[in-house]
Amino acid sequence: MKKDLVKIIPKSKPKTSGPVRISFLILILIALIVAGLFFYLEIKSNSLVEKNEQLKEKIDNLKKKTELEEELLTTSYKIKDFSKLVEEHKEISVFFDFLKNSCHPKLEIKSLKMDLPTRSVVLSGETSSFETAGEQILILKKSGEIENIEASDLTLSRKGRVNIGLRFNFSNNLINK
Description:
CATH class of one domain: Alpha Beta
Helix content: 55-70%
CATH architecture of one domain: 2-Layer Sandwich
CATH superfamily of one domain: General secretion pathway protein M, EpsM
Number of helices: 4
Oligomer: single chain
């Protein structure tokens, strides 16, 4: 029975030594610090991933904007080129109207080279006689719109036709009408 009594009476807990307690507290403190660092780094990592995605979106938007700006710039250049072309077309069409009205009916124009900035023209054609060629030169001189006319390459072809080459400059007044 005595043995049973010993079991019933509670024994006091053995006291742990000071260094063990301190070590246990230090371990708990280290575990709390590691857990805190883990959660802090996890939150920081998520925020950096989110920031990275936002920056990628901004980069994509900037790329799209740059592509649009390049496309707009290209379109702008095309429009400027087209306006210049239309303006030159108006100027050239005025010249061709003048040429249509100033050509001798018996003169066939074979080639025409025109340099709009210098207002120079090289024209070659074929006519039935030297007289018609001379009349054509006179018509152009009298028009008042032609400057520095030169006749060149006056030749007689095997078919009996006269080949004529003319070089001249036209006045600014002609294309500014």
